[in-house]
Design a protein that fits this description.
single chain; elongated; mainly beta; 23 strands; 4-stranded antiparallel sheet; 359 residues
């Protein structure tokens, strides 16, 4: 799948969005008459309404003001990752009316159920420089059972962070991973992925040759097996029975299981235990240098936290063991993961945060 260049372009658009979310080319207005405008502008309405539960077919977010606004003064001080990922265009999502009193952000439909949209504005000014310091907040939630693992054809994620490996010498640095969903039939889907180290993610994203075979059922997101490439040769692994990766609906609780798979002529097994912790978490979106953007924090809202522990063995001797901590956001899926694996004399640790999700 030749998707690296496509994702790189969307990442560059995401960076541009963080710099100026709703900015447009500067506009000049001329005030005539003897009376100077000294009154701060007012927000007249927000559509959909603040606090609304909206349908999956809602395709805009709109702000209406009582007078022309200095478009460069209206930039959010916080935005939810779910809102950002749902915008119809990433480079410059805000479209102003001709007289600069109405600003509309297009949303890509259908929206994903459970998505939490939020934007916060500290202030805004009219074209004469009068500032409204009261600011305003807006939040809406997409109706339906929250999807913590959206299975949508073409849905892509880019996670980035750092890695540390001992094998036996210690190395560390930047790590980035692309994940793309390809929907098949009967609930099955393939999760294509590729991970690379110490490269520029906006230029050097690798192409994907490996995927996890997965399936969505009424009770779980399952892993059926893996398709991999090693030494220029492909290989396929199938779990019997499938692993329940994420139980549905997502709620507090634990589950465990044992599955077998063939590796060459040997039969191996994996024992695992997973837990969804109580409560919800807000997870900041990462950045290329692993620091949150100072101008406009992007937050993945309402996340559920999950832990996973596993062992791979031949039924007697353990060859590999690991522990994962994962955060899933409603309407976005995986937004942060911490992985730690020990395999004989090799240890591998990563900490990655979602940078971008969408199509």
């Amino acid at each position: 799948m030749l998707l690296g260049r496509k994702i790189a372009a969307r990442l560059r658009g995401c960076v541009g969005l963080l710099v100026a979310c709703f900015a447009s080319p500067a506009v000049a207005f001329v005030t005539t008459g003897t009376g100077a405008d000294l009154t701060p502008p007012q927000l007249v309405s927000i559509e959909p309404a603040n606090g609304a539960v909206i349908g999956t077919d809602v395709n805009f977010f709109r702000l209406t003001f009582n007078e022309p606004i200095d478009n460069n003064s209206l930039s959010p001080t916080m935005i939810s990752g779910q809102l950002m990922a749902s915008m119809a265009t990433m480079d410059n999502p805000g479209v102003w009316s001709e007289n600069y009193t109405v600003m509309t952000v297009g949303l890509r439909t259908p929206l994903i159920p459970g998505s939490i949209f939020r934007a916060e504005f500290e202030s805004f000014a009219d074209v004469n420089g009068n500032v409204n310091d009261d600011g305003f907040d807006w939040q809406a939630t997409v109706a339906g059972t929250a999807q913590f693992y959206p299975v949508v054809d073409g849905w892509a994620r880019y996670l980035a962070g750092f890695y540390e490996e001992t094998n036996p010498a210690k190395t560390s640095g930047f790590v980035g991973e692309i994940q793309v969903i390809e929907v098949k039939t009967g609930g099955e889907f393939w999760l294509w992925h590729n991970e690379n180290h110490n490269s520029d993610p906006a230029k050097d994203l690798p192409e994907m040759e490996e995927y996890d075979r997965m399936k969505v059922t009424t009770s779980a997101i399952q892993i059926l097996g893996f398709h991999g490439v090693r030494d220029m040769e492909t290989s396929d692994m199938t779990f019997t029975p499938p692993l329940d990766w994420l139980r549905l609906p997502v709620q507090t609780g634990s589950w465990s299981g044992t599955s077998t798979f063939d590796e060459g002529e040997d039969e191996m097994e994996v024992d695992y235990e997973a837990t969804v912790l109580a409560g919800t978490y807000d997870v900041p979106m990462g950045s290329m240098d692993r620091k949150q953007d100072d101008g406009m924090p992007v937050i993945w809202l309402g996340c559920r936290k999950m832990t996973l522990n596993y062992e791979l063995s031949d039924g007697v001797d353990v060859f590999s063991a690991g522990s994962d901590t994962l955060w899933y956001a409603p309407g976005a899926g995986l937004v942060r993961e911490i992985n730690h694996e020990v395999q004989q004399d090799r240890t591998y640790h990563t900490d990655k945060t979602l940078m971008w999700a969408g199509f």
